[in-house]
Structure formats: C-alpha cells, structure tokens
Write a sequence for this structure.
C-alpha cells in the first residue's frame, strides 16, 4: 500500500505540475478568479478533514473490539465522503453554468477580462438589437436593471473551454475519482463487517489499508486546496 | 504493516495492531488542529496587507496539515522507517517533478 501511495504522489504531482505550467496561459476566460468560491471550497475541505477523523476513530474502535462504534464511525466517514463528492458535483455544475452579470455603467477598470468581454454587448443591447456575445450563451440585456442597464450571460467552464478548464478538471476530476473509489471501498467494508468473520478486531488489516488510502486522498486535497484554490484566486500568483 | 518491534500481537490469529497508536482524544485534537490551520489559511487569504508574503505562509500551513495527517492519521510516526521512506520518497520525487516541469517551461522567469 505504501508503494502504491508513493507512486500516487507522483501521479498527482504531475497533474499539479501541469496545472501550474498552464496557469495564466488561457487565452480566454473564465479564469480561477471568475469561478472559484473560496467559502464553498473551505466547507468541502472541512468535510473531508472531518471524514479523516471519523476514519481513524473507526479504526481505533475496531482494534478495541467496539463493533458498534466502528460501524457508526465508518458510516459517518462514508456519508462525509459522499458529501464531499456532492460538493464537487455542485461545483462542477456551477462552473459549467457560470453566470456573469455586468452593470453597463460600472467602471470598466474594475471588470475582469470575462466581464469586459460580456460588457461589449452593452452597446448592441442599448441600441435595441438582439445581443450576442462570442463565447456566452443565454445573453440578455436589461435596460432597467437594479443598478442601471445590465447585461447577463452564461459562460460555462468545461474541460474544453480553455487551458485552465482542461488542467483544473483533470486534476480535481482524478481526485474526485479517487474519493469515489474510496467511498465504494469503505461501503463494501461496512457491509462486509456484518458477515461472520468479515471485518473483525482480529481481521483489521483490510480497514487499515482502506484508511491509509482515505487519508492519502485527504492529504492530496490539502495540497489542491492551497495550490489550486487559494493561490489560484490570489492576484499576484 | 509494521515491523516486529513495533507490532503487538494480542493473541494467535490476530492481525497486527500498531502499538503506541494515539488515543481517540489525540485523533480529535489533531482534527481540531487541522480545522484551525484551515481557518487560519482562509483568514490569511482574505488579509490584504500580506501581498506576496501570502505564498510562503499558505505553503507552510499546508505542509503542516500534510505532516499532521501522514504522521498521526496514517501512523507513519509509529511505523517502520521503510514505510516512511517509500512514501516520502514518492513525495520528494513528485516535488522534484513539479519543479523540473516548472523550470522546463520557464515558470520561474
């Protein structure tokens, strides 16, 4: 297991390196600053950290022969893992349907590149023509918006949108696949523990190996959270 | 999973249990430390006065979390050094690959 985890370090190392190499090289948006929501990702990071705690408590309970506590903590780990995955699905959906709203009268120097490209449709909208902005879909111009004339459109980030999309989805997608595999593994151990002689205080190695894998997935996310999300939104990076 | 010297066999037929593993309370304390470090990361992130100083601070905090998880939750602190070598070896290689690729693509210039 340790040899596998060591090799998996290199696997994620190359994905992180690829993400960093192409960071800032996208020719068009959306960019990290346009789509990332740090509060949401902080909550999902918290969920994954808590799942690591419940995992060790599950293993500790098993080795002490406390089968009921072992199953409760294992079930908690599975639920927390599934919750993390739900956050990731939600995040991917939000990115793919990223809505941009620009107030046409705003100071253009405060706009991101993506907002500036959408704002190019303000003139067409003001002239009363049908608005179409390259790269955006469902573009609508509202002459009487909350803060004056507004334009809104959907610019979805998918793996094919730009280099950021490709490297971001590859990295977080593979991590998500690891978490999914972990949840399935833990789920199988949970059901297996009800079988006579399945997972018992005597036979704890299966759970120990699954726990190692689960914690590894956690440490990879610790790195991704800092390098991709926090550094990604930091303007000076 | 562990070397003979660090393995306590409770009775014949039992799989090895790591001796000297932390108590559940220690696991809880580690979890709380991880949560606090994550909270500090987010606070530091929104603190505007740090400018580029944010990068080493976040990197160190992230490394601290990484170390806590592998030492206590993945019990490398209590296991045979061979396991640490295998994992840290892979980690160091990954780190070198990242820097080599970044250098190759003139990322630092």
């Amino acid at each position: 297991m340790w040899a596998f985890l060591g090799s998996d370090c290199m696997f994620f190392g190359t994905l992180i390196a690829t993400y960093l190499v192409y960071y800032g090289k996208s020719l068009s948006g959306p960019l990290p600053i346009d789509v990332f929501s740090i509060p949401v990702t902080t909550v999902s990071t918290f969920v994954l950290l808590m799942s690591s705690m419940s995992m060790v408590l599950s293993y500790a309970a098993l080795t002490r022969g406390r089968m009921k506590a072992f199953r409760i903590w294992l079930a908690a780990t599975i639920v927390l893992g599934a919750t993390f995955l739900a956050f990731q699905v939600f995040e991917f959906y939000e990115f793919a349907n990223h809505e941009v709203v620009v107030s046409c009268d705003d100071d253009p120097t405060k706009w991101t590149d993506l907002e500036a490209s959408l704002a190019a449709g303000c003139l067409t909208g003001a002239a009363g023509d049908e608005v179409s902005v390259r790269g955006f879909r469902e573009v609508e111009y509202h002459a009487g918006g909350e803060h004056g004339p507004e334009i809104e459109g959907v610019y979805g980030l998918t793996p094919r949108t730009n280099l950021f999309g490709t490297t971001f989805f590859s990295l977080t997608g593979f991590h998500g696949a690891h978490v999914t595999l972990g949840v399935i593994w833990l789920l199988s151990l949970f059901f297996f523990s009800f079988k006579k002689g399945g997972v018992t205080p005597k036979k704890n190695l299966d759970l120990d190996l699954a726990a190692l894998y689960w914690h590894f997935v956690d440490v990879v996310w610790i790195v991704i959270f800092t390098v991709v999300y926090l550094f990604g939104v930091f303007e000076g990076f | 999973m562990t070397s003979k010297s660090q393995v306590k066999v409770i009775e014949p037929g039992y799989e090895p249990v790591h001796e000297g593993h932390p108590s559940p309370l220690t696991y809880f304390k580690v979890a709380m430390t991880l949560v606090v470090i994550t909270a500090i990361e987010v606070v530091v992130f929104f603190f505007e006065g740090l400018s580029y100083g944010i990068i080493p601070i976040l990197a160190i905090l992230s490394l601290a979390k990484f170390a806590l998880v592998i030492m206590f939750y993945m019990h490398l602190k209590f296991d045979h050094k061979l396991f640490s070598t295998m994992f840290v070896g892979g980690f160091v290689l990954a780190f070198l690959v990242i820097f080599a690729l970044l250098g190759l693509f003139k990322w630092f210039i």
About this structure: Residues 31 and 69 of chain B are 9 Å apart (CA to CA).
